Amino acid sequence: MTRQELFENIKKKKSFLCVGLDTDITKIPQHLLKSEDPIFEFNKQIIDATKDFAVSFKPNMAFYETQGAKGWISLEKTINYINKLSPDLFTIADAKRGDIGNTSKMYAKAFLENLNFDSITVAPYMGEDSVTPFMEYKNKWVILLALTSNSGAHDFQLNEMYSTFEKGIDVNSPLEKGIDVNSPLEKGARGIELYQQVLAKSKSWSTPDNMMYVVGATKAEMLTDIRKIVPESFLLVPGVGAQGGSLEAVAKFGMNKQCGLLVNSSRGIIYASTAENFAEKAREEAMKLQVEMSILLDKFL
Amino acid sequence: MTRQELFENIKKKKSFLCVGLDTDITKIPQHLLKSEDPIFEFNKQIIDATKDFAVSFKPNMAFYETQGAKGWISLEKTINYINKLSPDLFTIADAKRGDIGNTSKMYAKAFLENLNFDSITVAPYMGEDSVTPFMEYKNKWVILLALTSNSGAHDFQLNEMYSTFEKGIDVNSPLEKGIDVNSPLEKGARGIELYQQVLAKSKSWSTPDNMMYVVGATKAEMLTDIRKIVPESFLLVPGVGAQGGSLEAVAKFGMNKQCGLLVNSSRGIIYASTAENFAEKAREEAMKLQVEMSILLDKFL
Asked: Which of A17, A145, A242, B128 would staple A267 via disulfide (CB 3.0–4.6 Å)?
């Protein structure tokens, strides 16, 4: 899917909602456990119930791998179901992969070719050659972890770095529009944080047409700084709903001319109820978010 | 497996070799493709041929996931085969996972409980709560990425950071034995590199009995600095063999009183030949490394 197509789908549905399919066998309604493939059955009903209000679906791999080969089959059925249902649904393999080039290529094949996801989340720690193999597929996307919504984001992502300015990296191109590299360095007191470094440096390997970023919504006010570095890129924002975070603040600080946002909700939608009418309840929660998003699109787009 | 048990196995075999099972269906000998599960058949023959010279086996998940559910079954058979063959073989799921706590827990269950690996490689980018769920299994291990052997290590891992010293982190405990935090900061000219920060900070979440580190061998001289931060920890060193890197330098700069090293070779062993006698050739390559390691253990232990 191209960036323009994603934007068209957002406008059409008046929604930038991504539904996270973090399907935990211990949390799905009891009555589904009788079916042959309870995880797929659950996903199918959730997808059918929420597809009118969501532009994207994001299964998290951990929940499938914990079921072994059977889980992988549930995953295959899920992605095939979504792809068959509509080419307009943007699919995200939330895998947070990343390895040496040779090996990242294998992961890319697994998720973007074999399973035919539109995109995959990738961890940046191993640098450029661990990320670029995922960008070799036309109209497919890397969604690079930048700022995550968990408490551990403070351990490394929010630490400041400075030496890159001295080591011959071209600070002018990715950074010039964003961070004021001169003032903090002249003062000798402030660098840029690791997640900002990830945003800035990855811009030299990618374009806003093949890379998005994960940006945690618990820090909505930071979206202003983030938008200075990556004004055009789509941002995948987790952490609205069960993990807290205000949708209005995300839209206010993060929206760009093509919306530029996919806001994920997992537990708040898929576990809205564990009764037999769970799908209906999920639909109601998805619709609530879509209504709110529709208003925010009118206000900020 | 405990640290002491691993050390006993190293002394018994006079080897600190880990064989990387990066089993690529397009690279294994043609005649195996006739068998029902070529990947498992290849692994089985490699394991049988090299087990006398290796203390550890490390399948990389990417090579299995690229085969879908079938690949997951090959992986299950492989880990079960190793575990049944000998409890003395230290098994590593090279998965480089890491997600929010809730989700990392699922990955931990998948690899350390269901598949019963002794250890899993984990990416540090998301911080403490993404790593600690993997440490809830007794005598199982996290192998945290610190310094990797690919060129992308220069993008973030080798960048210097400084602000943590100002932000109330207890610089005395993990760092005091290692890096001289005073001098670089007083000069205002040098911080510590991100990978050193990962080593230092993760020490406060872990012990040398439940955490090891991935340290790329292409930078053997850096092992001196690394040993100042993590003197007791085991280090998993990739990049000897096909990726280059001197075994002697790794032993010289990296070995501690319990050896403290697992040196991995993948392609150099498993693809030594693609002829029908590939396993015999793999055995020869593994033996060569074991002989060299035996000498290095005598010299540096």
From this structure: A242
